[in-house]
Design goal:
The chain is of the alpha+beta class and 167 residues long. It is 24% helix and 23% strand. The protein has one domain: Gcn5-related N-acetyltransferase (GNAT) (Aminopeptidase, 3-Layer(aba) Sandwich). It is built from three helices and seven strands. The mean pLDDT is 83.
Length: 167
Amino acid sequence: MTHGARLRDLDPPGDRAALERLWAAALGGVWPLLPAGLDLVRDGVVAESGGALVGVVGVVVGNGGEGGVQLLLVDPAARRQGVGTRLLEAGVERLRDGGVTTASLGSGGPDYLWPGVPDDLPAATGFFAARGWRFDDSVIDLTADVRGYQAPAGWGSGRDGSASPSR
């Protein structure tokens, strides 16, 4: 059924509610949506089937021939039916049309959601690898609960806002 999904340009404000539902269905249990996260996705292609949005690819064109696939989401009920592959192809075509010669997953432009493909999404890594994308580098994304956070004793803020030891 979704093999015949219709592709169209992303309409960021018009598609917002559907993108939030798609994010929740595809990633919500692992990666809750940040309040302004989807605001970064301003260009891309969506897949619709039966009047519902079943997938999206967000792209960003950077400087110097670089760009990236910011986001590729497919509704779990529509996976393994060619929707993700069609969206990826449409996204890469959009990047090429924008003059991009080197594309990255997650980053590649001024705005990104992740610095790459999160390693706790192994199906995503396998999907891209099967389509010719190759491993380039590792990034460690550290997080902390900052409610009640206190800097370690002896550390203050430098005049430029960077952390530095107090003297």
